[in-house]
Structure formats: structure tokens, C-alpha cells
């Protein structure tokens, strides 16, 4: 009976620790995002500020233009949206992916232009 009680308590503690472990990912900091485009490989500097599951995102691409957006991170799943103003109107890109400590990868949905795969590596501080 004592072994059974100990096993139940141990199981409960392990199950309580699982959700906390999935929230240990913190993407705050500077990253380099790479995406293959019809014009060749494109890189952008991305800065994430994470508060819980909420993200504030700043992306700096060609010509040093900065674009800001917001997103979320739940477990190791990440999503953020950047809207750019262009001569043809506003253009929104939604990035979704998976985080693996110092790297992440996923797809960028670009409206009528389809999707593109992307990867990102965390820059050293």
C-alpha cells in the first residue's frame, strides 16, 4: 500500500512538471532568419521579446527597413505576423514554426504568393 501511494505521488509530480517544461523555451534575443525566394536566398535579422506566451517581433531586412509585429509561442510552436507597407498596398506575412532551443524552422504564408520555408538561428550574445 505504501509503494502504491508513493507511485501515485511520483506520477502526479511528473505529470505536473510536464506543462512547465514545455514553457521553458524563451526566444528573447536576436536571430538570423533565412528563406529561399525566387530572387535567391534572403536573410533578415529578427529580434524577439517574449513575455509569457506573447511575442513582440522586429524584423530588419534588405535596405535596413524595420518592420514590427506580434505573435505567440506555445510550447515549442511559434507564430508571428509582420505587415509591410508597399507601393502596391499592405503585405502581410505569417510565420509559423517549431523552436528547438537555438534554432527554429517553419513556413511563411505570403498571401497570393504562396508559402516559403524558413530557418532561423539564434545569434550569440
Characterise this structure.
With 125 residues, the chain is α+β, with helices and mostly antiparallel strands. The chain has one domain (25-122): Lipocalin (Beta Barrel). The chain has one helix and eight strands; from the N terminus they run αββββββββ. It has an eight-stranded antiparallel beta barrel. It is elongated, with a radius of gyration of 19 Å. The model is unreliable at 17-22 (pLDDT under 50).
In helices, the fraction of residues equals 10-25%
Distance between the termini: 53 Å
Structural class category: alpha+beta
Q: N-to-C SSE series?
A: HEEEEEEEE
The CATH class, by name, is Mainly Beta
Name the quaternary structure. Answer: single chain
- Could you give me the name of the CATH homologous superfamily? Quinohemoprotein amine dehydrogenase alpha subunit, domain 2
Q: Low-confidence parts, pLDDT < 50 over ≥5 residues? A: 17-22
Largest sheet: 8 strands, antiparallel, barrel
Provide a count of the helices: 1
The radius of gyration is 19 Å
**What is the overall shape?**
elongated
- CATH architecture, by name, is Beta Barrel
| Mean pLDDT value | 85
Can you tell me the CATH topology? Lipocalin
Number of strands: 8
How would you sum up this structure in a few lines?
With 125 residues, the protein is of the alpha+beta class. It has one helix spanning 2-22; strands at 29-37, 40-51, 54-60, 66-74, 77-86, 89-100, 103-109, 115-122. The model is unreliable at 17-22 (pLDDT under 50).
Amino acid at each position: 500500500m505504501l509503494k502504491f501511494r508513493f507511485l501515485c505521488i511520483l506520477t502526479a509530480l511528473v505529470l505536473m512538471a510536464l506543462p512547465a517544461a514545455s514553457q521553458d523555451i524563451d526566444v528573447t534575443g536576436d536571430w538570423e532568419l533565412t528563406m529561399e525566394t525566387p530572387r535567391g536566398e534572403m536573410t533578415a535579422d529578427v529580434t524577439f521579446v517574449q513575455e509569457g506566451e506573447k511575442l513582440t517581433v522586429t524584423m530588419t531586412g534588405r535596405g535596413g527597413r524595420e518592420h514590427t509585429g506580434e505573435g505567440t509561442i506555445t510550447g515549442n510552436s511559434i507564430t508571428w505576423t509582420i505587415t509591410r507597407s508597399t507601393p502596391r498596398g499592405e503585405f502581410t506575412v505569417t510565420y509559423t514554426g517549431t523552436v528547438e532551443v537555438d534554432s527554429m524552422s517553419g513556413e511563411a504564408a505570403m498571401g497570393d504568393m504562396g508559402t516559403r520555408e524558413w530557418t532561423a538561428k539564434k545569434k550569440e550574445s
